[in-house]
Every structure is written in structure tokens, then in C-alpha cells.
Write a sequence for this structure.
């Protein structure tokens, strides 16, 4: 919402400075977004008088002038044709910045003669495009500030333009009068009543207006007057200036009048060329399918139920949103029908949204204009038209009535203190509300018709506090709900998430935060990309679907980093994955990704490509950190975006998958442009059961003084036998005595097959025996060894390697 | 015997290596060594002679053994020194490479904010990011026709043909978590709700996803003055310097009265310094929870009242740590992650400090 200071002063009698007004506006909730103050640019220009002007000896078009300024007599060279003795001029002294030529004036020589300044044209000061000569002022004292002279003599030239942001609850402030009312309530002046003497009716209405029964809820009131014999044309200068100042293009007087009252009083109006209207006007609902070319020259197809204004031949205007081109006013219009109606905000909002029309009228009607002002605004417009453009006005043509919006809420003056925490005297509270237009009856405050936002007692508190200024609010300590050491506030899941995050960083991964949405192709690689997770209005095709996992985005990030020359990466993210489009179909996962090598090339030769067992070690570390049980199953059925032979799923029982790990499928890497090797893991943070025991006790530690014994066994096995089966079999040989079984060697491949036969491999394990009662004898150890071999043979078909 | 002593002591002193030393030991005190042979002769002596020769021989044997041991040790020392001299490493070579992980500023700042509010008794609440429009809008006093809906640049989920429910949205703010928490826990309640939010907007200063933290405190007599105190306490703890706030009247559908909150700052030298100077920086929206919102959360607005506020976490991170570009937060550029990331064990706590 833009307006000029002088426009504001049309409604507000005030001595306040511009800065005071700006501060008050922002503080009142009418946030100033910008201000353009022409006087600020003109601050350094002063008035001077040309004492003498002679032709420059070396240039025909230049004159050497002696100019009286506040600093004495200055010699100034000037090229303007009107530079002559005796005129009063505007001087830019050396050091002054001249905006129109983007130059700071300095003392210089022009064709050999010194010049100490410049006499300016309007264009040079960016006041207008006028550049035929330097400014000649009809008055003004030498040394007087030019800005001050303008303020006194041509205030419109230094009229500051103020732009404020209007929150949706304040339609009244979409008119300059409403802004003035707020400032007056704050004490920055008094509101000037702007009333109107209606133009007397000169003739009876030649046509009628009706509102269909089913449309009355959307259009309770439709009023208008026909004016015959107007002379349309350009608006008077003041009106053109006022509209231009706020960024509107003057069109013709009749149209400009409607724009003026839109901004002056938040009263959108419409003018029909009455000669183009056929028969009577009817406000009704569209059947659907009717078309209409609106004032923006676009054709709109109306949907059933939308409100329209039609004449006998069909739709003329999209009610409350935009008029029709066919009946619009032109320079030639002589008979004009001025319309002022009240439209239901909700219906206008839905129609405007459906037709995608953003007009000033829609913007205002959907926020709620003052219904009571509907007929008064009409009289204002008719008065302005007749006064300026002549003609005579018909009697009022009206259908419906002003809707009753009267309502009152109890003003509990103590509520301001209990809700806001400010002490404001009762009388001041009442005075504030009255200044805003509320009518007080006892402690009941009747809401003015222009404040649709006030819907309860809390709104009265808001008005009082707002006008009193929230800057006066003093903080008051809020004690803790309960005294003493506060209880922990994080849920076990929140702590788990933090543990997972810090653990992954400790493992050397860099945390990323990637977008929750991703392109369909990438989502599809990870089992997503379906319609359930599709966005209706994505910002781009790169972000069209909710991600099934953070992993594709991490891989894309890896590709970007590789393109920047970083080939070895360890990235992770703890964030949401979306497996559907419902609110509950979201789960929190921790995802790690290793790409390339373990590190840069180094003198120690530790560098190697990352592999599945890096991912496995890291997922195990994360699982351990977040409290997953040590005993888990590892299945081979990791999802399809992993290498089928080099991946696994870590499970508790057949259904509960805690996480997956493995080498990323080569096709996925190719699709996402990542240079491998790449391994990854995902932990489903919610899948891990929370411990049931509440006790902090760790349980007793069992230590044995007896010497533990380790024995190694190497087995020949079928190549597809899994190490975990071997380990479990060995461990089962004597559960009391065997403390640990570790695999320490794997021998496989062609060499192994050459030694042990086709399809064979060898695994070597260490079995650690921890006696608890007495030291083991060699025979006892021997006996356990035999059992280990038997168990392994039974479970895996393996034999001891000879 | 003295002759013997001198001979061996001198020989031991001159022995060049362990081998020579061993030969001398065998020669002197070995089973058939000279000293040992002499000791065997003791048996043939008279008791008086034995009384003299015995101890002397024993002393000689001890002396030779000690000399042997000393020489052995000194030879070992020499040998070790020799070895150490040869074992020279270029210690300026790099150590074995180890990856250094980092924590993203969003996570760090979220933990900082959590630590401060936890100290003031606020719990952490969470909610879904795909929301139904009732929780995201209606319950927050933003009905279907409300202009704020259009102004929020909402992302909508696509609806399947025939599914006539209003489309779900990506939550435009963390405020729906307020509603869910009120419905679940009732009053009194103090929570913060940090998390991802979404707006259909992408330019120099906007990303379609960013992070907010919502605060909600409902009690019998919690006022806007308490809100001001809580926010000033928060900002001062967060920025590590006393921060003044300025409240300005504003409007949000879900609060009444509503206020925009500015913090004192200076723009001197082109960078923002919080807590000093004469300028004000708008940082958050807040207000007293609207009675309709309390009702939507199943809380009686006659009996209970309180405040709510929402701050951008990314914005807080940018202000505090001088991070210039919001878009870079979500780009995962390794250089950025390393530069702006935080050390793994650098956990922000109220007792340990919140400023890095």
C-alpha cells in the first residue's frame, strides 16, 4: 500500500515530522517497507541570483555568470539559453552531488575560465524531464534551501511516498483514511472528517438492478447512479499527480475516480459506459461456461456458482473482481453508470483464486471492505464526477441493503495487563477504542463496520496494546514450571538421533542436510517416485517427489563434489524418509555414504578403495551407539539399490530390519553419475527396540582368574557357506566354556580351489575358551576342539583343513 | 690370585663384543674356568689356608661376574645406541590419514536452542512434515479462503483421482506441532518444536526448505511480558551477549495480540553484530495464542493462556556464525561442510557454554 504524505494529510491534521510518522506506522503494525523522499535528494541545493551574465569569450553558447549565493559571489559558466541577469536560480555549489547527471560538482575550468558550481534544470535534479533551461524561480531568498522553497511553494514536488505492508487483518488500512485513523489514535494528529454532499437526483432511473435470491449471501447490496452528459477526458493535474505518485497510470477521469477512492477509502467502484449496457442489470450466479472478456483483455470462462453482473445480453462483469471490456468507459463515454457493491470476502477469494485474477478489487473485497461505506462511497464518486466532468445524476438505483455487521464485545480493562503485561489506565483504553471508531456503551465496545477482523475480546486487547505501543512492554521473568534441577526434556528417540549423528561424525563422516524432495528418476532408483509421494506444485522437476531415503541426495551430492575435484567422500544425513503421502508415513533414518578411497594417497600405503566391510563396521558402530542388541541376524536380502552379492540387512527376527548396508549397485552409481566404489548404510532409528529396564545398574562384572586358552581351526568349506553359520556352530560346541569365536582368515578364489577342490574355500577361526572353575587340562581342551569340529561339520559340512 | 684378577678385569674391560665377553666368562668362571679350578683346589687345602683363600676366591669370582655384567650392559648400551642412531625417521612425514567428521550447523544450532529452552523448562516436540490442511491451517485459525493461505507459498501433495479430501501440504511452519502437542498433552505445556518447513519459493535469500523452531508456553497467567523476557534470555544466551528486543504490533492469524520481534544490532563495516549498535533486525514473529487455536488444541481459552513464537534456525545460524548464503546450507559442498561444520564432540550445553 503506497500513499504520499500530502495524501495522508488530506485525512490527518498533524504537525508530526515524516520520521515520527514512519516510526509510528511501523510500531502500530503498519510496517513501513520503503519511503521515497525527494527532499532528501535536494538537501544541498540552494537558491541564488544571477547578478551578471556575459558571453564566454571562447564559446558562443556558454555564458559566464556571476551568481550571488549564501557564500558570496560565485563565477559559474552556464550553457542554458535562459541564463541571464536578474533571474533567481537553483545552485549546486562545489561538493554537491547532482543526481540527474550522476556527478559531484567540483571547481573546474570550462574553455579556460573557472566555474564554481552549476545552475540546475529540473531534470538534473531528477524532479521531472524538463531540460529546456535552468530553473527560474518566481520567488526565493539567496541562500534559502531549495527543498524548503519547494515545500512552501510546490509541495507536490517534494511529497514523500510511503509504502507500508498491510497484514491480511487490516483491510481498513488499505485506504489512506484508515491509516490516518490509526495515526490519530496514536496521538499524531486529528482525523479530518471527509463527508460528502450527495448530488441531488435529476431524473428517475431508466433501468433496474436486481440480485437473484441465491446470490444475496454473496452480494447483500448493489447500488449505483447513472450520470448523463459527462465530459470524460484527462483527470485534473492533482489527481494525475496523486495516482502517479503511488505508481498508478492515469487513464481517464472516470476510471481515475474509481482508482482514487480505491486507495483513498478502500472503496473499489466500477464505472460502466451506460450506452453499452443493454437493458437491466442483474446480479446472479453463473450457470458455468459463460465467457467474458475482462478489462485486462483476457477471456475468462465462468464456473458454475461464481457471481456475475449481467445485462439483458449476458455477463458484463466478474462481480467484485474485474469489469468487462465491452462495457468499460472510454474517453468518449458521456453516460456513465457508477457502481458500488458489497461482496462476500470468502466468495470473492474463491472466485479470484479459481480464475487466477489478481486485481485491486479482488485484493480488497477478499480482505473485507467497509459494508456501511458502500452507498456513501458511491456518493463521493458521483460528487467528484459531476463537479469536474459535469452531467446530471439519476436517483439511486439499488438492490439489497447494507448487511448488519453490528457486534459488541466486553472491554475488560484488566485483560490488557493479564494478557499483555502492560498497565494502561481504563480511560486511556476507552479513548483508544473510541479513536479507532469503536462505540462504547458501558463496558461493551461496538465494533466499527470497517473492522471485520475484530471478532472477540482478545482483539480489543490487541487494539489497546497496539496503539499504546508494544515497545513499552517490559520483560517479566517466567519461572520454571517446577523448582529444582529440571528433568531431562529429550525423548529417548531424540537422544538416539543425536547419538547416531555424533557417532557418524566421530567415524569421520561429514553431516549434510539435503532437501526432502528429489527428482522422480532418482526417487525411483530407491523404491520411491510413486504418485503417493508426488508434489502437486513442485518448484522444479528436480524436486518433484518426497524422497524415499536421503541416500539418493547424498549420492547426488557426492557427484557434485567429485565434479569439484573431491573424489573421496564420507557423507551422512540423519533425516526423514517418506514412504507414502500421509502424515504418519515418515520415518527418521541415519544414512552414511562412503565413496572412493579411505583417504588420500599416503607414504604409509594405507589407501585402499572403500568396500562393504567399511560400511558394515560403521553401521555396527552406529547400531551399538544407539543401543541395538549385540545379537542380530544378517540376511542377504538388502534392497535392490545395493549390489545383490555385496550387501546385507541387519535384522532382529524375520521382520524387524534395523538397517541395511552394502555396495551401491553399479547401475545406481551410473544413473547418478557417481564414480565408485561407493558403499552405504541406512539405520532405521525407530526400528531398534528401546531397552525395557529402567535401572541404571550395569549388573555385576564376571571376571575369571583362570587363564583363557585360544585354539585355532581352519576348515575347508563349500564356497557359499557363510562365516556367521560357521561361527555360530563353533560357539555352540560348549556354550559354557567358549567365550568368543573370531574369524581371522579367509582363503578363497582359484588358488584355494586348486588346493582344496572346485567350489571350496577355507575359513580359519580362533576359539577362545575361558574356564571358570579350574584350569583346563590338555585333554579337556582337546575334547572341546573335537566338539567344535563335529558341530561345524554338522552345520556346514566343513572339514578340518589338513 | 691378584695376577688372575688383574688379567681378567683388564681383559673384560677390553672385550670388544658379547662373544669375547662370553669366552672370557667361560675361561674365568665357567665350569672349567681358571677361577673355578682354583676353587676346586680349596678342598685340598688346610682349614686355615681355606679360611683365607675361600673368601678371596669367592670375592674374585663375584668381582669378575660383576665386571662381566657391567661390561655386558655397557656393550648392550653401545649396541642400542648404534641401532638407534641407524633408526632415523623423517618425522615431518604425515601421520596415517584419518577422516575428520563434522556436524552440520543446522544440527549444532538446533542443539544450542534446545539446550537453552530445556533450561527454561521447554520440552522438544516433533510432528510430521507432510501435514493435513486442518493441522497446518484450519486449526491455526487460517480458514480456506484466508489470504494468508495464498501468501504462504504452500506446497501441496498430489491427490489421486477420486480422493476428494483436501490435499495434504508440506507443513509451511512448525506451528501444527503446537496443535498436535496441545491435543496430546493438554495444559499447562511448554514445548519447542524444531524442524524442517517448506515454502514454494527459491531465490537469493529463500530456499524451498528451511528450518524453524516454534515455541509454545501455556499456563494460567503467562503473558506477553513473559514472552519478552523468555526471548531476551534466549537471545542473550544464544549470542553470548546481552541482547535487547523490540516488539512491534503485527498480525498472525494464530496469535492475538501479535508482535514482530526485532533484536538490537549494528551494521557497521557491512557485517551484522548482534547486541550492539542502533539498528534493529527483524528476527521472529510471536504473540499470545489465539483463543480459537487453544480451542482447536482442546484447551479451554477461558482457563488458560500463553504465548507462541517462531524463529528460523538457518537464520539464527547465519547470524551467529556469519554464514552468508542460505542456499549453501543444502548443497553439501565438502568445502562448506568442513568450513562451517562443528567438531564431533563439541556438544553445546548450558553448563559448558553455547558459543564456539
Amino acid at each position: 500500500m503506497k500513499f504520499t504524505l500530502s495524501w495522508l494529510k488530506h485525512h490527518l491534521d498533524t504537525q508530526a515530522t515524516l520520521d515520527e510518522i514512519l516510526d509510528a506506522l511501523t510500531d502500530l503494525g503498519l510496517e513501513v517497507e520503503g519511503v521515497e523522499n525527494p527532499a532528501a535528494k535536494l538537501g544541498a541545493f540552494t537558491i541564488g541570483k544571477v547578478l551578471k551574465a556575459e558571453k564566454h569569450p571562447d564559446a558562443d553558447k556558454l555564458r559566464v555568470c556571476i551568481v550571488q549565493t549564501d557564500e558570496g559571489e560565485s563565477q559559474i559558466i552556464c550553457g542554458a539559453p535562459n541564463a541571464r541577469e536578474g533571474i533567481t536560480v537553483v545552485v549546486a555549489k562545489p561538493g554537491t552531488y547532482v543526481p540527474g547527471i550522476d556527478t559531484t560538482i567540483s571547481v573546474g575550468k570550462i574553455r579556460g575560465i573557472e566555474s564554481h558550481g552549476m545552475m540546475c534544470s529540473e531534470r538534473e535534479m531528477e524532479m521531472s524531464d524538463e531540460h529546456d533551461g535552468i530553473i527560474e524561480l518566481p520567488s526565493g531568498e539567496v541562500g534559502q534551501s531549495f527543498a524548503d522553497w519547494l515545500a512552501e511553494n510546490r509541495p507536490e514536488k517534494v511529497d514523500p511516498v510511503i509504502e507500508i505492508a498491510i497484514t491480511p487483518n487490516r483491510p481498513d488500512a488499505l485506504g489512506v483514511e484508515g491509516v490516518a485513523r490509526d495515526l490519530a489514535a496514536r496521538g499524531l494528529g486529528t482525523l479530518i472528517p471527509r463527508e460528502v454532499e450527495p448530488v441531488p437526483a435529476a431524473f428517475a432511473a431508466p433501468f433496474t438492478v436486481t440480485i437473484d435470491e441465491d446470490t444475496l449471501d454473496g452480494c447483500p447490496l448493489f447500488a449505483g447512479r447513472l450520470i448523463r452528459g459527462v465530459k470524460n477526458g484527462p483527470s485534473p493535474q492533482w489527481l494525475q499527480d496523486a495516482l502517479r505518485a503511488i505508481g498508478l497510470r492515469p487513464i481517464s477521469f472516470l476510471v481515475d475516480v474509481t482508482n482514487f477512492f480505491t486507495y483513498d477509502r478502500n472503496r473499489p467502484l466500477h464505472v460502466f459506459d451506460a450506452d453499452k449496457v443493454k437493458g437491466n442489470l442483474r446480479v446472479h450466479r453463473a450457470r458455468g461456461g459463460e465467457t467474458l472478456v475482462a478489462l485486462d483483455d483476457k477471456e475468462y470462462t465462468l464456473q458454475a456458482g461464481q457471481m456475475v453482473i449481467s445485462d439483458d445480453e449476458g455477463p458484463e462483469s466478474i462481480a467484485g473482481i474485474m469489469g468487462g471490456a465491452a462495457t468499460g468507459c472510454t474517453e468518449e463515454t458521456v453516460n456513465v453508470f457508477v457502481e458500488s457493491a458489497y461482496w462476500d470476502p470468502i466468495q470473492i477469494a474463491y472466485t479470484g483464486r479459481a480464475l487466477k485474477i489478481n486485481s485491486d478489487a479482488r485484493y480488497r473485497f477478499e480482505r473485507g471492505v467497509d459494508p456501511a461505506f458502500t452507498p456513501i462511497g458511491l456518493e463521493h464518486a458521483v460528487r467528484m464526477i459531476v463537479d469536474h466532468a459535469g452531467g446530471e445524476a439519476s436517483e439511486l438505483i439499488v438492490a439489497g441493503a447494507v448487511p448488519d455487521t453490528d457486534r459488541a464485545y466486553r472491554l475488560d480493562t484488566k485483560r490488557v495487563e493479564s494478557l499483555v503485561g502492560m498497565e494502561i489506565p481504563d480511560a486511556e483504553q476507552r479513548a483508544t477504542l473510541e479513536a479507532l471508531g469503536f462505540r462504547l456503551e458501558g463496558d461493551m465496545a461496538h465494533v466499527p463496520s470497517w473492522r471485520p477482523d475484530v471478532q472477540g475480546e482478545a482483539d480489543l486487547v490487541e487494539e489497546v496494546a497496539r496503539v499504546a505501543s508494544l515497545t513499552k512492554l517490559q520483560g517479566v521473568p517466567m519461572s520454571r514450571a517446577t523448582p529444582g534441577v529440571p528433568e531431562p526434556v529429550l525423548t529417548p528417540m531424540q537422544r538416539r538421533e543425536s547419538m547416531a549423528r555424533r557417532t557418524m561424525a566421530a567415524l569421520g563422516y561429514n553431516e549434510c542436510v539435503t532437501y526432502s524432495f528429489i527428482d522422480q528418476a532418482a526417487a525411483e532408483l530407491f523404491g520411491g517416485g510413486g504418485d503417493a509421494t508426488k508434489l502437486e506444485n513442485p518448484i522444479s522437476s528436480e524436486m518433484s517427489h518426497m524422497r524415499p531415503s536421503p541416500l539418493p541426495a547424498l549420492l547426488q551430492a557426492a557427484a557434485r563434489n567429485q565434479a569439484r575435484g573431491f573424489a573421496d567422500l564420507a557423507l551422512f544425513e540423519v533425516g526423514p524418509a517418506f514412504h507414502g503421502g500421509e502424515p504418519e508415513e515418515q520415518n527418521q533414518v541415519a544414512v552414511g555414504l562412503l565413496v572412493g578411497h579411505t583417504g588420500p594417497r599416503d607414504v604409509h600405503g594405507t589407501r585402499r578403495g572403500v568396500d562393504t566391510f567399511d560400511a558394515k563396521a560403521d553401521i555396527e558402530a552406529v547400531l551399538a551407539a544407539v543401543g541395538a542388541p549385540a545379537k542380530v541376524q544378517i540376511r542377504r536380502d538388502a534392497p535392490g539399490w545395493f549390489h545383490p552379492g555385496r550387501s546385507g540387512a541387519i535384522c532382529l527376527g524375520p521382520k524387524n530390519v534395523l538397517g541395511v548396508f552394502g555396495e551401491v549397485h553399479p547401475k545406481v552409481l551410473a544413473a547418478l553419475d557417481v564414480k565408485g566404489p561407493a558403499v552405504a548404510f541406512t539405520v532405521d532409528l525407530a526400528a531398534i527396540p528401546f531397552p525395557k529396564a529402567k535401572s541404571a545398574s550395569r549388573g555385576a562384572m564376571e571376571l575369571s582368574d583362570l587363564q583363557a586358552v585360544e585354539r585355532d581351526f581352519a576348515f575347508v568349506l563349500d564356497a557359499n557357506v557363510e562365516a556367521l553359520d560357521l561361527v555360530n556352530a563353533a560357539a555352540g560346541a560348549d556354550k559354557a566354556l567358549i567365550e568368543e569365536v573370531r574369524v581371522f582368515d579367509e582363503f578363497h578364489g582359484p588358488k584355494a580351489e586348486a588346493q582344496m577342490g572346485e567350489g571350496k574355500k577355507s575359513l580359519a577361526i580362533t576359539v577362545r575358551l575361558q574356564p571358570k572353575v579350574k584350569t583346563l587340562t590338555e585333554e579337556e581342551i582337546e575334547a572341546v576342539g573335537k566338539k567344535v569340529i563335529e558341530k561345524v561339520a554338522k552345520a556346514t559340512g566343513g572339514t578340518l583343513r589338513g | 690370585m691378584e695376577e688372575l684378577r688383574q688379567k681378567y678385569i683388564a681383559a673384560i674391560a677390553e672385550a670388544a663384543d658379547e662373544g669375547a665377553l662370553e669366552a672370557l666368562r667361560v675361561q674365568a668362571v665357567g665350569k672349567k674356568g681358571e677361577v673355578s679350578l682354583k676353587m676346586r683346589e680349596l678342598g685340598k687345602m688346610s682349614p686355615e689356608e681355606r679360611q683365607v683363600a675361600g673368601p678371596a676366591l669367592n670375592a674374585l669370582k663375584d668381582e669378575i661376574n660383576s665386571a662381566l655384567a657391567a661390561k655386558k650392559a655397557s656393550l648392550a648400551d653401545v649396541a642400542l645406541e648404534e641401532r638407534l642412531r641407524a633408526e632415523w625417521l623423517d618425522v615431518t612425514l604425515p601421520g596415517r590419514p584419518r577422516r575428520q567428521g563434522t556436524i552440520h550447523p543446522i544440527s549444532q544450532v538446533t542443539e544450542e536452542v534446545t539446550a537453552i529452552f530445556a533450561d527454561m523448562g521447554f520440552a522438544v516436540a516433533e510432528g510430521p512434515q507432510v501435514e493435513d490442511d486442518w493441522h497446518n491451517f484450519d486449526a491455526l485459525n487460517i480458514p480456506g479462503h484466508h489470504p494468508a493461505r495464498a501468501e504462504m507459498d504452500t506446497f501441496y501433495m498430489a491427490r489421486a483421482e477420486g480422493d476428494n479430501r483436501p490435499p495434504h501440504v508440506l507443513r509451511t511452519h512448525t506451528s501444527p506441532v503446537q496443535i498436535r502437542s496441545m491435543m496430546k498433552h493438554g495444559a499447562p505445556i511448554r514445548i519447542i518444536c524444531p524442524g524442517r518447513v517448506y515454502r514454494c519459493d527459491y531465490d537469493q535469500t529463500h530456499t524451498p526448505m528451511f528450518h524453524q523452531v516454534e515455541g509454545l508456553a501455556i499456563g494460567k497467567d503467562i503473558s506477553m511480558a513473559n514472552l519478552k523476557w523468555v526471548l531476551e534470555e534466549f537471545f542473550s544466551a544464544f549470542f553470548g551477549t546481552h541482547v535487547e528486543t523490540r516488539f512491534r504490533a503485527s498480525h498472525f492469524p494464530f496469535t492475538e495480540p501479535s508482535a514482530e520481534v526485532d533484536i538490537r544490532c549494528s551494521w557497521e563495516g557491512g557485517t551484522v553484530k548482534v547486541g550492539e549498535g542502533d539498528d534493529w533486525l527483524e528476527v521472529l514473529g510471536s504473540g499470545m495464542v489465539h483463543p480459537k487455536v487453544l480451542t482447536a488444541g482442546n484447551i479451554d481459552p477461558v482457563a488458560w493462556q500463553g504465548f507462541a513464537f517462531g524463529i528460523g534456525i538457518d537464520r539464527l545460524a547465519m547470524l551467529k556464525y556469519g554464514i552468508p548464503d542460505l542456499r549453501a546450507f543444502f548443497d553439501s559442498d565438502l568445502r562448506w561442510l568442513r568450513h562451517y561444520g562443528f567438531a564431533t564432540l563439541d556438544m553445546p550445553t548450558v553448563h559448558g557454554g553455547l558459543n564456539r
Q: What stands out?
A: Residues 207 and 250 of chain A are 30 Å apart (CA to CA). Chain A touches chain B through 106 residues (CB under 8 Å). The two ends of chain A are 93 Å apart (CA to CA).
